[in-house]
Design a protein that fits this description.
about 45% helix, about 250 residues, TIM Barrel, alpha/beta, eight-stranded parallel barrel
């Protein structure tokens, strides 16, 4: 089954608004009318409106880096899915390891955010991944299975709605280390098999599973050659227009 690749750039807490607009403009100009890959960028919340104006009508689509599971209320400093929708977002990154590590997110809170995103027509990009200690203890697949099970709670095949999964080994995020193509494929294949057990083969076959963890222009081609890798969630390299464009083009200029 053909699954259109997704290359998503997570800018994290980087760039000031004017810098973000300049980066988005550069991406727009360098990418042109790319059609064979779905391109997504996730700027900080403060940039979303201005960048939406910059990329509107182009193939570049917007994601939020996070959201609150509540629709509204006394939640100082938080942003709802409905607010993000009005800012032009089509996607929301949910459960990134940095959110789990620094802000105490759990499998339960990730599940709540997934349900909130779906209720507001945002496509979740759901992150899963193991720490170095868990990999060294041979617990990688156990950890991934637990995280997936938590994310899927209460979801049926009908409610899946094109959710994207991103496998991000925590030990490879921002470290310069990248899982080997074989290591990444093993986990991606396992994720697809877990989805098949929970939601059926049709859903598993169409679900796009991204790899994240120090993805660079020189590593993307080998990753994309793997049968169960459908794209990348890119961190640092997404802040450099030339590098991100090369990744979108699978390592080519």
């Amino acid at each position: 089954m053909f699954r259109k690749p997704v290359i998503a750039g997570n800018w994290k807490m980087n760039t000031l608004p004017f810098e973000g607009v300049e980066l988005a403009r550069s991406l727009r100009e360098k990418l042109g009318e790319v059609a064979n890959v779905e391109v997504v960028i996730a700027p900080p919340f403060t940039h979303l409106h201005a960048i939406n104006e910059e990329v509107k009508g182009t193939p570049i689509r917007l994601a939020a880096q996070n959201l609150n599971a509540k629709d509204s209320g006394a939640y100082t400093g938080e942003i709802s899915a409905a607010m993000l929708l009005t800012m032009g977002c089509d996607f929301a990154i949910i459960g990134h390891s940095e959110r789990r590590q620094y802000f105490g997110e759990t499998d339960d809170s990730v599940n709540e955010k997934i349900l909130a995103a779906l209720a507001n027509q945002l496509t979740p990009i759901v992150c899963v991944g193991e720490t170095l200690e868990e990999r060294e203890a041979n617990k990688t697949l156990e950890v991934i299975a637990t995280q997936l099970s938590g994310a899927l709670k209460g979801l049926t095949a009908e409610g899946w709605k094109d959710i994207i999964v991103a496998y991000e080994p925590v030990w490879a995020i921002g470290t310069g280390k990248t899982a080997s193509n074989e290591q990444a494929q093993e986990v991606h294949g396992f994720i697809r098999s877990e989805l098949e057990k929970s939601l059926g083969k049709a859903i598993a076959d169409k679900t796009r599973i991204l790899y994240g963890g120090s993805v660079k222009p020189d590593s993307i081609c080998g990753l994309m050659d793997q049968p169960d890798i459908d794209g990348a969630l890119v961190g640092g390299a997404s802040l450099k227009a030339e590098d991100f464009v090369k990744i979108v083009n699978f390592g080519k200029g």
